[in-house]
Specification:
This protein has about 400 residues and is α/β, with parallel strands linked by helices. It has helices at about 10-20, 25-35, 50-65, 85-95, 115-120, 130-140, 155-160, 165-175, 190-200, 210-215, 230-240, 255-265, 280-290, 300-305, 325-330, 355-365, 375-380, 390-400, and strands spanning about 40-45, 75-80, 105-110, 125-130, 150-155, 180-185, 205-210, 220-225, 245-250, 270-275, 295-300, 315-320, 340-350. The protein is built from 18 helices and 13 strands. The longest helix has 15 residues, at about 50-65. Bound molecules: adenosine monophosphate.
Amino acid sequence: MDFKSLQLHEPILKALEEEGYTSPTPIQEQSIPLILQGKDLLGCAQTGTGKTAAFTIPILQLMLSNPPKDQRKRVRTLIVTPTRELAIQIGESFKAYGKYTGLKYAVVFGGVNQNSQVNAIRTGVEAIIATPGRLLDLINQGLLSIKEVQFFVLDEADRMLDMGFVHDVKKIIAFLPQKRQSLFFSATMPPEIVNLASSILKSPEKVTVTPVSSTVEIIQQSVFFVSKTNKNALLIDILKDKKIKTALVFTRTKHGADKIAKVLSLNNITTEAIHGNKSQNARQRALSNFKSQTTRVLVATDIAARGIDVDELEYVINYDVPNIAETYVHRIGRTGRAGAKGTAMSFCDVDERPFLQNIEKLIAKKIPVAPHTYAQGVSDIAPKKEATSKARKKVFNRNK
Ligand code: AMP
């Protein structure tokens, strides 16, 4: 299948060609025809599958096909996403795919002064890409109306739940007209998400791509069994490899991210940290330095990293093993995007073993163990006091 066979309008095809897209990704192949038919959609897809284009392209097509009769500009599309980084990234996609359509959009998110966003809205935009809090703020101030929205997208719904946005989302839905087309995307589908989806969608078509295990297959994964105290030394050691032009390092905590950034910087490795305590400007600056390879290592927490879309990011390093298996898949999904090469290394200390087991269960494969200088036999990797010698032996054998 190619994009031409979807009978998209010429301005969209031209933009896709310029982006270098030749054929749709599986989520696009499945979703675009359904959305074009006006169906509600429940998409189970993670980032890196091309899901942004899967909803942006058909929405642009439908907006072009059905211009308002009275020429009055109103918000016809609303895309709600949990983080500012994601909002900006979706905005970039809207800009790229819609560049010849003449359709105007605005991106709104919190943490920055609202004036420039309000000014953009006042110019008469037809699409809004927003994080929930700022969107509600602007609606409540009477600066934005979503009463005439025809196309509503809720992106990364599971993350919305994690971040405690569910009430905001429900309030937003209450402002939307009953008659609309709704698209709902989530990487995972726990029961709360299924409930939320059923309150938003009408007889949705379901699209599931890449059960988590298949996306991660193209990524070369390895686990380094290492004690907490040796993680910094191991990281510095790995980064001696000049092949690693840039690497995204994940940590569970903001404090951890800052500490690692400090240690790496002291070792002459250009590093910046991004997390929720950093200002929007600092985060954007760190991200663009990383994209331009001025910064070699970006240390990020899970939430801050969610919107990072760096073409050709080859290395992801999990400084700690995430306690939620799906988070591992999200993290390593930052690399190996759209068929590119990807390498994911995870540092696992003895307390993190159970997390590793859950991950291996989820992705339905064993992650190969990497040999390294700091895996000095049993002492480094042995479980603490309570461990049996049998368990120790197992750990040791696995690490050989
Ligand atoms: P997403 O899952 O939306 O975060 O997209 C992941 C990456 O895939 C982005 O960098 C897109 O630019 C890229 N991409 C999306 N669709 C296609 C396509 N049909 N062909 C090639 N690359 C694509």
